[in-house]
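Weekly structure sync, notes
Attendees: PL (lead), two postdocs, one rotation student
Agenda item 3: pending single-chain targets
PL asked that the sequence for the first pending target be pasted directly into the notes so everyone works from the same version. It is reproduced below exactly as submitted, 376 residues in total.
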Amino acid sequence: MTQTPADHPGAAGAAEPVATSEAPDALVASARDHWGPRFAANGVPYADVQRLLGSIRSWSDWCREWSSAGAAHESLAEAASREGRDRSAAEHYATAAALYHFAKFVYVADPGQMREAHRSAVRCYDRAIAGFDRPGRKVLVPFDGAALHAVFRSPADASSGPFATVILIPGLDSTKEELRSTEELFLARGLATFTVDGPGQGEAEYDLPIRGDWEAPGAAIVDLLETMPEVDPARIGVWGVSLGGYYSARFASGEPRLKACVALCGPYDFGEIWDQLPQLTRDTFVYRSRAESDEAGRQAALGLSLRGRTASIRCPTLIISGRRDRLIPWQHQQRLHDETAQWSELLMLEQGNHGATNVLAEHRYRTADWMAARLG
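Predicted structure, written out during the meeting:
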């Protein structure tokens, strides 16, 4: 039976969660403390963030509760679609996708629940993108016997192209379904976006493990973009966040066709900081790198390094760092800048957390302007 919106927690008319003084367990507290601002920054309504973070006490409940909230918004989307309110349906589906995504983002403790939440995130986002003001379409990038799944969006009708294009790379626990708000900034400045799940990410994570040599999948992505008539192959840039900030810099170190690079809060050497990473982050990396233990994960993480690679970064590069980043120390971005000073700029955000999602106004618009200027 199809549930009405009021049947779901968090929907209009649903009962408020029962208040409790019980403290959340360590994993829930870690997710809240490290990623709280990120949820609202990337598509989850503030009221849902507050309710979920205020009511979930056990990590075993995380995926189920966030998925239930996603289902509430999916029901609103289905109702809007039945009534022919396509614009509203797209927005509701996008919101549902964000909630389902954060249900699964580091929930590797139960792969079955995680994968079901991910299927729901992809299902909703696939329904959303056609209804955006600047619609998106799915694209597959053949790579290593499998495929990387991407969404391409152009700033205007294809007849106005070809367009300068920005490749957007998620991090360890993010996917293309999380990056719509970043896409919008580039699209508003006349740039197309190509947001891709790379190896170990999103729809590619089931076929391809994490890998450090991102110049390899990067080359496959640029090869495909060069075949697309909407894309100007002479004006391609890359943006990456968190572990994607490492991927973008590593990509630029081996791909001369890139004309600009943004590395947002990425590590210089992921293995160097293994012991100080949150347990949820280590567990997620172990799972998505196909390592068999925490120590094997550490060894795999040591393969994600820019050592010996920075001298070959020859495109303009904007490095963004948060001084209060508790996951990736700011010294990693400083080191990347020091080794690429001829080509790079460093934007140090004194109050910035990981991903600088708590100080968005200090970097998001500036980043989009910077990329638009570099790609002409």
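Discussion points:
- The chain has two domains: 5-124, 134-375.
- The radius of gyration is 20 Å.
Action: rotation student to compare against the earlier draft before next sync.
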